[in-house]
């Protein structure tokens, strides 16, 4: 992936968008309810999580989130996590899926890891609609710093793109990543305080647990920053957002670097 001109970048993004739309149609072409599978299954899992953890976490969220309904406490960061989860889980097989294009001399291979974004963004948009509906029904309005959520979303996109580039390219040479990545993503979900407040981790008293779940986990900062931006205020958001921004840029650059280094061998392996 050599240095690209503006025209080449725009052309590659248009091609990725075209492939993404076709990908969404083809994935559900033979099913009765079509795109509903893409959104319905994750929402079903979310509903089960909310039903169970809303009981377990009742009265235990504390601090700045004590007045927030658990459904909103969960769905705000989950809207960001769902993008990462769907894109990265599909990344191991995306280059092999379009292997017939990789051998084309003029084809912008760098655009292929972006293909899964179409259905992921669709799912995310529907979750945002649900969040707005829940806020209206539960009489919970966002604070003035809600605009900062767009910055946090941009950071989550950079993390997702960086991971997609790294995973898709490494999977060409390590096929077992196709089975390993979904397991690692699931583990990361449970190690991120999306379904439970970080205050419970702090209260555990185990330093190594706090380090794994909070200090060294970029998704902790994404989760906390999103909740703080929507429900608390800008004063609390900036520290988490600063760490998240630095981490997301590092993830993106590392992913692009790995992709560039391995790209020259794609055609030989595939």
Short description:
The protein is mostly helical.
Give the helix/strand layout.
Blueprint: H1 6-27, H2 36-56, H3 70-97, H4 99-102, H5 117-137, H6 149-173, H7 177-190, H8 198-204, H9 207-215, H10 218-232, H11 234-263, H12 266-269
Tell me the overall shape: globular
The SS-based structural class is mainly alpha
Proportion of residues in β-strands = under 5%
The string of secondary-structure elements, in order, is: HHHHHHHHHHHH
Contiguous low-pLDDT stretches (5 residues minimum) are none
| SS summary, helix count | 12
- Helix content, binned percent: over 70%
Major β-sheet annotation: none
What's the average pLDDT? 85
Q: Measured on Cα atoms, how large is the radius of gyration?
A: 19 Å
State the total count of DSSP E strands.
0
The CA-CA distance between the termini, in Å, is 17 Å
